[in-house]
């Protein structure tokens, strides 16, 4: 077995068995080895090698017995578009071409030398060396965005017919390409010379609620968010100053922050035929558990020409409603006595008399009128017939049919806005304290034994009535 040569073989002009085509070429000697070992590839030192092209070429025997390489014709579909004939070879192709030269040198046959043009590495084309220009992005310099101003009124509201404002989606603005519309965000209204105070409702709060009623949609409120926040802050300050005065009238009301007393402005439209998303008023409620709970409480609502103040139980559940009907059946004078107080008679029922009336008939007439007024205020969802377990000819059937137990009245804007608004609200709520106290004593009594004591009183009254009947018969 022949030993493997440890030196590199170089191409020489005196190599035998050369092809006739190669003999006519000038003989040149190169120091570049025809085989590159793996150690030289991994060496960090620069190594100059001659690029061997067309490693996939086939070997065909020549006429004189020598072996000659022929390059297959390139396909026109794989030609380089840039016109350069340089090819990039992979490491696998270089390794394969090296072993082919080694086999040829071992057999004593050398391949013809390549021309000088083929041995040299191709130079980069002038197109590759030239720096590429960066493409400009965005609109051209000739086209510039035009600024279109929108007319607004003194309050900063965009002028335009309702439903055709430019900030509404789907409105045709009729703008040319490149034009933009800049809608200024309205600022909050000025105070108009009236400073904001915590103990009074500012006139701007009423103005905002009036505008919200005329433009009750999300887009409008989003644009006028500054007015909303300013008005909400003003109402919260009013509620915070009103709470201590209500506590002085009714000691059962706890001191809570405005967030536990005021209602949200968003409406629940899931089961409503009205699609408007917002309430057009600010409202708050005071009870033993804040704005929510099973207790009777006080209610305040402010809106332009639609302010309201009231107290009582609105839509009570079945159990509290049954307790109220039971108390009306057994002791109706408790509810009628709360309705005949001077404050409720004069301020909410608009009647005259009370304790000033002389004679039994006037007192009875006043009681009937108070019951009539109270039933009329709660006739919205009252029963058409008698309730269960009660007779249709009951003496207080009008009260037994009720499903709401409330008293309230409308307020003028002058009674709410201004310096005297807080005092007027406190005065009216003070008149409703006996009515709220009665409702809570029936629905949510303070002492757990109050129900048994009331039954004992009812039995005692029944015994007294029967005894008097026996005496009359005797």
Structure notes:
The chain is α+β, with helices and mostly antiparallel strands. 37% of the residues lie in helices and 9% in strands. The strands form three sheets. It has a four-stranded antiparallel beta sheet with strand order 5-6-7-8. Strands 1-2 form a two-stranded antiparallel sheet. The protein has a two-stranded parallel sheet with strand order 3-4. The longest helix has 25 residues, at 225-249. The protein is elongated, with a radius of gyration of 51 Å. The N and C termini lie far apart (155 Å). The C terminus is likely disordered.
Shape: elongated
Q: What order do the helices and strands follow?
A: HHEEHHHEEHHHEEEHHHHHEHHHH
Number of helical segments?
17
Structural class: alpha+beta
Low-confidence stretches: 9-16, 18-24, 47-56, 85-90, 92-121, 140-144, 356-361, 450-456, 462-474
| Mean pLDDT over the full residue set | 74
Q: How many angstroms separate the termini?
A: 155 Å
Strand runs, count: 8
Oligomerization state: single chain
User: Biggest sheet: strands side by side, in what order?
Assistant: 5-6-7-8
Helix content bin: 25-40%
Proportion in β-strands = 5-15%
| Whole-angstrom Rg | 51 Å
Largest sheet: 4 strands, antiparallel
